[in-house]
Write a structure and sequence with these properties.
The chain has about 425 residues and is of the alpha+beta class. It folds into 2 domains: about 280 residues, Zn peptidases (Aminopeptidase, 3-Layer(aba) Sandwich); about 120 residues, Alpha-Beta Plaits (2-Layer Sandwich), CATH 3.30.70.360. About 35% of the residues lie in helices and about 25% in strands. The protein is built from 12 helices and 18 strands. It has a 6-stranded mixed sheet, sandwiched between helices. Strands 11-13-9-14 form a 4-stranded antiparallel sheet. α2 runs antiparallel to α3. The longest helix is centred in the last third of the chain and has 20 residues. It starts with a helix and ends with a helix.
């Protein structure tokens, strides 16, 4: 069979396997894996069974903490070549039974072309799509060279220190030349990068007094208010992004904002500060002696977490009674939009969908950022999420099947390059 015929056979095998795709996604949905508490044992058992059904797959299991199970599988073509990784995470948002679901949250109901269930978009549907793609590729291993690795992480919602990051640090087989993820997104947008993050805790102290005798006290909330005003001014930090990233964001704006909301392009290109928690005081007639706040700072390509830290030092360091600390951080990251894995994903998507997707950054995080930390070019290509984290989470079945086809075609083209 020629390379062209094998390529067509792989795509056809995926296209004809919709029933299997739905069944496998339902199995993953039914195996609850909410985080917190973060126990993915049941979901990992289902995933391990699905991996074992892929021709030639070697599967390894790594439990990095009680209930946090990671899986690594390798499919070898038997010929030397490149390595491509499919990555996913098994944990989901809390099930939220009290949110008003109209379908069973773990039932995997299929209605009017929509597949429902907690975690179906984030990202059990994406995992099922990748596994279907790899199964089709495994059946045609004579047509490509190198290896396919599948990494399924048990910890992503908590930043991945016991999931993908642990695997990349501890398991050499988890690494690859490129990575493709089916995490949430849209078939119309290939996501090649993500903003960075700094979480900061701020505390202000004061002197207690009766609320009628403010001259005898120092109001900790007033001090905190001043600190938070300074914190918000971090949004003025100048950004020096590479032209290739800026051009991609601009070119993607019309399509991407239709899906992700007007203003996404602006948000992708500047520092944003979200003050998510404020605590302080015990009674309206007492001058508070302590106040606290927690903030989420997102940083675009062109700004580093060190820039943010230095900004915090300048703005908060001289404020009386105010202390602060960074509790989490990671850098913005991107794979150049012209990189081969981005181009091949775009070409495959155009072929399957009949129209060309745009390429863009994403405002939220995924494990693609972890792979980029280890120098592995990575893209995210997944289903559009509907009601993610809310009641009646679902994906469109047509999109789910298209994602599986694009994953298969992208991997085939990447691994078969030069084998003719």
């Amino acid at each position: 069979m020629s390379n062209s015929d094998a390529r067509s056979a792989v795509v056809a095998a995926v296209a004809s396997s919709q029933d299997s795709l739905v069944a496998n996604t339902r199995r993953l949905i039914a195996a609850a894996s909410p985080n917190p508490p973060g126990d993915v044992t049941a979901a990992a058992a289902v995933a391990a069974d699905l991996l074992a059904r892929i021709p030639g797959a070697r599967v390894r299991r790594y439990e990095t903490a009680p209930g946090i199970v990671n899986l690594v599988a390798v499919v070898d073509s038997g010929r030397p070549g490149r390595r491509l990784c499919f990555n996913g995470h098994l944990d989901t948002f809390p099930i939220g039974e009290d949110l008003g679901w109209t379908v069973p949250p773990l039932g995997g109901d299929l209605r009017d072309g929509r597949l429902y269930g907690r975690g179906v978009s984030d990202m059990k549907g994406g995992i099922a799509a990748s596994l279907l793609a790899v199964r089709a590729l495994g059946c045609r291993a004579d047509a490509w060279a190198g290896q396919i690795v599948i990494t399924l992480a048990g910890d992503e919602e908590n930043m991945g220190s016991l999931g993908s990051r642990w695997l990349l640090e501890q398991v050499p087989e988890a690494r690859a030349d490129v990575m493709l993820s089916g995490d949430v997104g849209s078939p119309r947008v290939i996501r090649f990068g993500e903003k960075g993050l700094v979480w900061v805790d701020i505390e202000a102290s004061g002197t207690p007094a009766h609320g009628a005798h403010v001259h005898k006290g120092i109001n900790a909330i007033d001090r905190l208010r001043g600190a938070l005003d300074q914190l918000k001014s971090l949004e003025d930090i100048p950004v020096a992004a590479p032209d290739t990233v800026t051009r991609a964001i601009t070119a993607a704006q019309a399509v991407s904002e239709e899906l992700s909301g007007k203003g996404e392009s602006d948000t992708l290109q500047r520092v944003t500060v979200n003050i998510g928690v404020i605590e302080g005081g015990v009674s309206p007639n007492l001058v508070p002696s302590l106040a606290r706040a927690k903030a989420d700072i997102r940083i675009p390509v062109g700004v580093s977490s060190t820039d943010v830290e230095n900004g915090l030092k300048r703005r908060l360091g001289s404020l009386s009674g105010v202390t602060w600390r960074i509790v989490n951080r990671y850098e913005p990251s991107f794979t150049p939009p012209e990189h081969e894995i981005v181009r091949r994903t775009a070409t495959a998507a155009a072929e399957i969908l009949g129209s060309s997707p745009v390429t863009n950054m994403r405002v939220g995080a995924s494990d693609a950022r972890v792979y980029r930390m280890f120098g592995i070019p990575s893209v995210v290509f997944g289903c559009t999420p509907f009601n993610m984290g809310a009641a009646d989470e679902h994906v469109l079945l047509d999109e789910l099947l298209a994602v599986a086809q694009v994953h298969a075609l992208t991997a085939f083209d990447f691994l078969s390059a030069g084998t003719d």
